[in-house]
Design brief:
It is built from 18 helices and 45 strands. The chain is α/β, with parallel strands linked by helices and 970 residues long. Among the domains are: 134 residues, Leucine-rich repeat, LRR (right-handed beta-alpha superhelix); 180 residues, 3-Layer(aba) Sandwich (Rossmann fold), CATH 3.40.50.10140. The longest helix is centred in the last third of the chain and has 59 residues. The structure holds 2-acetamido-2-deoxy-beta-D-glucopyranose (3 copies). One of its GO terms (cellular component) is plasma membrane. This is Toll-like receptor 21. Pfam families: LRR_8, TIR.
């Protein structure tokens, strides 16, 4: 039987595995936003490609397998992925790719095999890649290319073979010659010594050829091999000399680079037919400005040139005559990376009437002087002085370039920006002053820059924003003040910025923020970055600083120094109805009130990562306002559990990131309540592999909606060697199984044996039954006798005000005077030091009767009510007749109506009325009273219904007697 059960269970398990919908991949992560289309399988230290992609759905379109340890791609490795368009296998230590490795990947467009160790390629590696357009093999060890390597990749457009060990250009040409769509061929940094090639030619489609960084000595003998090439990069072939160009047709070239070669530029122009307009003069060893004048004599063909690039030469200065002979430059004049120490109002550009842009980056310029009164105006619209050593910019430094729209002064040492420095730049749209040493902004620094849209002042040393510094910048949309030392923004410091959309104040020293500061742009601001300031709230605030920012989309408050914002005041996010993204990482928030996020109804993304402050307490309903939240990141927060009260409201949540927390158990109900969830990351959580997580394991293996990241790598907290997905859950069923077994066995046994016994032993059983009944009644009787031996006959419950009556009348009449009842009085018999409630309980239960001396005072006393409660509990719930009421004064029924338990007792039980002094013959009536009371006390507290009849009778008598006595009295 056991065996067959096992077989059955194996069968069921087998079925389960077969039917289960595990959604989660061993080594890959599916992009959260694309349904099973894009996968990243990086840093898995996996060796076998089949194990990496084995469980991916065939629908995949993009797969990235980076930084693994795959050295070999076997044949047909990706045959299932007939829809795949992009495959990247960068940095995998690949050594061998078998023929037909990419078989049937007819849709593949991009294949990246860079940074591996491939030294040889099989000729059928790229078989079947009919639609491949981009192939990168850079940073490998290829020495050779098989001739028919590209026979089935007719669409190949770009081939990158940079940084390999190719040394024979012929071999390359033979291999690529059939690629009729090839446009770009990058052979940079190989070991080619010549571009000679025999018996085959470069494809006619090829227009861009990079052979920089090789060992070229000569080009080719055939003079026309480059006739279709437009872009030719021959730079960094350190042995290449002018003679190599003899007889080479370069007439079609539109861009030629020969920096870092032995080519002598003036000799070169004597032997070549290239148009100088298209030559990049970078790194040609030029030092003397007169060389430029000479160079320009070679621009024979045209009066115009688009660009003139003189980077990486050694010019110290350019006099104003430098470009006199040169054609009109219509694009960029680039003199970056030279040794210029000064530029003197760009006088060398004088006469350039069409120039658009000038780059003077990476030089040694120290100051920009005043250019007020220059006779010429330059039409430049872009001007860049990045990476110089500029310390000061004098006023009117740009008076000669009034049309500039983009000005880059960033990455210098500007400490002094004269207050009129930017005067006249009325067309300026983008101004970069970031990474300088500015400490102060003058009130006229930005005066008149009425077209400015972007102002970047990041990484300076500005400490205070004074009133009205930006007041002319009515068109500014982006203001970057990040990385300064701003501790204070004066009132009106940001006035005038009426179109501001993005404000970056991150990395400053702000301690407070105020809605007034944001008032000028409260209707336009979309991005506010306050990361890494010193904002903290020690007390509640009255108005949220963000209350009027009705368009704010992104708010960053992460990492306030030194310990995080720690506390969010009540109503802090009030009014932010448009907010989409809220960043609160590194905040050490220890408590989230339930209404913190209530106004953020538009929020789509919230991150509280690294808010680790020991343990975070999320109040129930903390997230209830986030109706549109799609992504929630709570990594490294010390979360101990997920509760429905906190997470249950996130109906639109798609991605939940919970890595590095401390919960050992996750309630499946919470996961099920997140109806839109499609991505769950619970890596690095000490999941417990115990029955507590039985349901979770079951859920992870049977859910088809939520991708569980690296499901098969999740480990058990108890033992790092075991995995969560397959921890042994049998133990969880063992108890149940045993229980079921015994119950079933018992039922079967009884249903077989009893009829048998009944049939065989009917009379014996009947006899036995009677014997048992007799024994049982005997035991029952004994039990009751025990109970009769109570410590006291009656517990007297009375109010302090009636004590005189109890001591003077009741005690003598019941304890003395011939009758020896044993009474319990609390002042006399209660154990001292014992809890009063315990005393009452033991008194009520240790006495056969509870006698209540009822007066108005009694009814109001709370002790007594407890006593009555107890006694009446015994009466009603234990069905024991223990309660006896003695009314010391006449209390009309309507007064009793509020004591309805008492009324219930009176309706049911006997009660005695003390004949007071109002009676005509009190002595006689009292004698009768004591007689009745003694009789009532003598009746046992037997089970009520057993002799209910007797009781009723006696109560009738007592009442009758009492009525009689009352009648007698009157
Ligand atoms: C696949 O990758 C390409 C290139 O990275 C990207 O443009 C495209 O959107 C991706 N496709 C999907 C479906 O994610
Ligand atoms: C290339 O891709 C197109 C568009 O998806 C497809 O129709 C065509 O069949 C593919 N070419 C080959 C040879 O498979
Ligand atoms: C994605 O693929 C997995 C595994 O093949 C499957 O379980 C899941 O249902 C698919 N998800 C979607 C959204 O199609």
């Amino acid at each position: 039987m056991a065996d067959s059960t096992r077989h059955l269970s194996i069968l069921t398990v087998g079925l389960l595995i077969h039917l289960s919908h595990q959604y989660g991949f061993k080594n890959c992560i599916g992009d959260q936003y694309s349904n099973n289309l894009t996968f990243t399988c990086s840093q898995r230290a996996e060796k076998l490609i089949s194990l990496i992609v084995g469980d991916l759905p065939a629908s995949a379109i993009n797969i990235t397998i980076g930084n693994n340890n795959v050295s070999h791609i076997p044949t047909e490795s990706f045959i299932r992925f007939f829809k795949l368009e992009n495959l990247s296998m960068d940095s995998n230590n690949l050594k061998f790719i078998d023929g037909l490795a990419f078989r049937r990947m007819h849709q593949l467009r991009t294949l990246i095999l860079s940074s591996n160790r491939l030294s040889k390629l099989n000729c059928s590696v790229f078989q079947d890649l009919y639609n491949l357009t981009y192939l990168s093999l850079k940073h490998n060890l290829l020495e050779d290319l098989p001739q028919s390597l590209f026979t089935s990749t007719p669409q190949l457009n770009t081939l990158i073979l940079r940084n390999n060990s190719l040394h024979n250009f012929s071999v390359v040409v033979r291999s690529v010659s059939s690629l009729s769509q090839l446009k770009t061929l990058d052979l940079g940094f190989n070991f080619l010594t010549s571009l000679t090639h025999l018996n085959s030619s470069l494809p006619k489609s090829l227009t861009e050829l990079f052979v920089c960084g090789n060992k070229l000595l000569s080009l080719a003998c055939a003079d026309s091999f480059l006739t279709n090439i437009r872009l030719l990069d021959l730079s960094k072939n350190v042995e290449l000399s002018t003679t190599a160009f003899k007889g080479v047709d370069l007439a079609q070239i539109r861009y030629l680079q020969m920096g870092s070669t032995k080519v002598k530029i003036f000799e070169f122009f004597k032997v070549t037919n290239v148009d100088a307009t298209y030559v990049d003069f970078s790194d040609m060893g030029l030092t003397d400005p007169s060389q430029i004048i000479k160079l320009c004599t070679f621009f024979r063909k045209s009066k115009h040139t688009t660009h003139m690039t003189l980077k990486l030469n050694r010019f110290n200065m350019l006099p104003n005559t430098s470009l006199t002979n040169c054609p009109q430059i219509t694009g960029t004049f680039d003199i970056s990376s030279n040794n210029l120490k000064q530029v003197k109002c760009l006088e060398f550009l004088e006469g350039q009437k069409h120039i658009k842009s000038s780059k003077i980056e990476h030089n040694h310029i120290k100051r920009l002087l005043s250019c007020k009164g220059t006779k010429y105006k330059l039409p430049l619209t872009e001007l860049s002085f990045r990476y110089n050593r500029i310390l000061s910019v004098k006023s009117d430094a740009f008076a000669h370039t009034p049309n500039v729209t983009i000005l880059n002064l960033n990455i210098n040492s500007i400490a002094s920006l004269h207050f009129g420095a930017l005067r006249g730049l009325t067309k300026l749209q983008i101004l970069r002053l970031d990474n300088n040493l500015l400490t102060e902004l003058w009130d006229s620094t930005f005066e008149g820059l009425s077209s400015l849209e972007t102002l970047n002042l990041r990484n300076n040393r500005i400490a205070v924003i004074f009133y009205g510094r930006f007041q002319d910048l009515g068109r500014l949309t982006i203001l970057d003040l990040g990385g300064n030392k701003i501790s204070h923004i004066y009132e009106g410091g940001l006035r005038g910025l009426k179109r501001l959309r993005n404000l970056y104040l991150d990395g400053n020293n702000l301690k407070q923020i105020d809605s007034i500061e944001f008032a000028p742009f409260q209707n336009t601001l979309e991005v506010l970055d306050l990361l890494k300031n010193r904002i903290r709230f020690t007390h509640e605030i009255f108005v949220s600083p963000f209350v009027n920012l009705s368009r704010l989309r992104d708010l960053k408050l992460d990492g306030q120094q030194p310990f995080g914002i720690t506390r969010l005041p009540h109503g802090f996010f009030r009014g932010l109805h448009s907010l989409r993204n809220l960043y609160l990482t590194n905040s050490r928030i220890d408590h989230l009130a339930s209404d913190t996020f209530d106004d953020l109804t538009g929020l789509a993304y919230l991150t509280l990562d690294n808010s680790c402050n020991g343990l975070v307490h999320l109040e129930r309903g903390s997230f209830k306002g986030l109706r549109n939240l799609k992504r929630l990141s709570l990594q490294n927060m010390g979360l101990q559990n997920l509760s429905k009260e906190v997470f249950g409201h996130l109906a639109k949540l798609q991605g939940l990131y919970l890595t590095h927390n401390v919960m050992q158990h996750i309630d499946v109900e919470v996961l099920n309540s997140l109806s839109s969830l499609s991505y769950l990351d619970i890596r690095k959580i000490p999941l417990s592999c115990t029955c507590q997580n039985l349901e979770l394991q079951n859920w992870t293996l049977n859910n088809y909606k939520v991708q569980l990241i690296y499901l098969h790598s999740l480990r058990c907290k108890e033992s790092i060697g075991n995995f969560f997905f397959n921890f042994d859950t049998k133990v969880c069923f063992v108890d149940l199984e045993k229980y079921m077994f015994f119950v079933t066995a018992a039922v079967i046994f009884v249903s077989i044996v009893v009829p048998l016994l009944h049939f065989k032993l009917y009379w014996k059983m009947k006899y036995g039954y009677y014997v048992f009944r007799a024994w049982f009644s005997e035991q029952w009787r004994k039990l009751r006798e025990d109970e009769e031996n109570c410590e006291y006959d009656a517990f007297i419950s009375y109010n302090f005000n009636n004590e005189a009556w109890v001591l003077e009348q009741l005690l003598p009449n019941l304890e003395g005077n011939g009758s020896s009842f044993k009474l319990c009085l609390h002042h006399r018999d209660f154990a001292p030091g014992r809890n009063i409630v315990d005393n009452i309980v033991s008194a009520v239960y240790g006495s056969r009767k509870t006698l209540c001396v009822v007066s108005r005072n009694f009814l109001q006393s709370e002790w007594c009510s407890l006593e009555i409660q107890l006694a009446s509990y015994r009466l009603f719930d234990e069905h024991r007749d223990v309660l006896l009421l003695v009314f010391l004064e006449h209390i009309p029924e309507r007064e009793l109506s509020s004591y309805h338990r008492m009324r219930k007792v009176m309706l049911r039980k006997t009660y005695l009325q003390w004949p007071g002094s109002e009676c005509t013959d009190p002595a006689m009536a009292q004698l009768l009273f004591w007689k009745q009371l003694r009789r009532a006390l003598r009746t046992g507290s037997r089970m009520e219904d057993e002799d209910a009849a007797g009781e009723k009778k006696s109560s009738g008598t007592a009442e009758g007697d009492q009525t009689d006595s009352a009648r007698a009295n009157s």
